[in-house]
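Archive maintenance. Older records in this collection stored only the sequence; we are now back-filling the structure field for every entry so that each record is complete. The fields below show one back-filled record exactly as it appears after the update. Entries are processed alphabetically, and Nucleotidyl transferase domain-containing protein is next in the queue.

ARCHIVE ENTRY
Title: Nucleotidyl transferase domain-containing protein
Organism field: candidate division Kazan bacterium RIFCSPLOWO2_01_FULL_48_13
Length field: 362
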Amino acid sequence: MKDLYAVIFAGGVGSRLWPVSRISNPKQVKPFLNSSDTLIQRTWQRVRRLLLPQNIYLSTTSDYAEMIAGQLPELSRVNLIIEPELRNTCPAIGLATGIVHKRHPEALIMNVWADHHYGLEEAYDETIRRSYDIIKKHPDKIMSVGLHIEYPSTALGYLEVEMSSANEEGALRVKRFVEKPDVTKASEFMRAGNYFWNPALFMWRASHMMELYRQHVPETHQGLSEIIMAWDTDEQNAILGRIYPGFTKVSLEYAVLEKGPQMLLLPARLGWRDIGSWQSVHEVMEENGDGVATKGKAITIDAKDVLVFNEDEGKLVTVVGLEDVAVINTPDAVLVIKKSRDQDVKKLVEKMEKEEKLRQYL
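Back-filled structure field:
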């Protein structure tokens, strides 16, 4: 897979994982889960099993570039893409794709998210290799991975496929994207059998993706073309800083992939979780089948479906007789929340942003 390049995207703050994830110390550089390695280190190790360091790029913001690079000694600085500010995935992926395409015109690209967890590592490796083999045969397609639905989630996106469209490689044709359905729809999708969770694990030929940008987001394509022309020259940062902040904030799915390019889906079971909420942290960390997951100094009695995440080594956290609760303790802030309402942490952060005396805790 010498012509395959991975781009790891690691620019988000992770507000739903407050108070552990902060603006100055985001989730990707923190040792979440049952490991001393940070999320970005775990992601690098996963991709590194498949690719050489020179084939791995990383995209982040100036606030986090040095912090992240310091945790990844194998990362080449010329492969570090620093976005002037976050503009969602369409500009970020377009920028990275354009840079790789300029340097390696025949490149295939896979996008990788710094905060994703794959419990079945061997299955992940095999899925990437199969995706690569399929995209080599179908360079005019976008390759996606679809995960078998484990429960009717309202926090995830879905992909609908045509079950009768399976080709000789076992890939299915994608009909449409569905973003975060309500629980009724999510239950229907699970029963239907032709819907899959969308982990946004895509693979494409760089030249093909840039052509899709030209067709579907011509203004963004024009700006990216100007940036890419200056890349690896003395004008690179000046032109990037002038053009990039003006891009529309929009996702790749909405701006390009939902507009009709042909997509194939490879079904898989990868033990996947998007580590973007305390519920997902609990699902990965809970190992004993008793519904309780703890990290740090913690004791629970008669607890059910409980997460205790304690970062303060000088304090013991105890939970007795509670259900559906997450207790998150840091040296300067404590979060106690119904775990089933973990998406509301973002609302809490937004409220704190509006009160000047509370911004020090963000």
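Update note: The mean pLDDT is 95. Residues 4-274 form a domain with the Spore Coat Polysaccharide Biosynthesis Protein SpsA; Chain A fold (CATH 3.90.550.10).
Entry marked complete.
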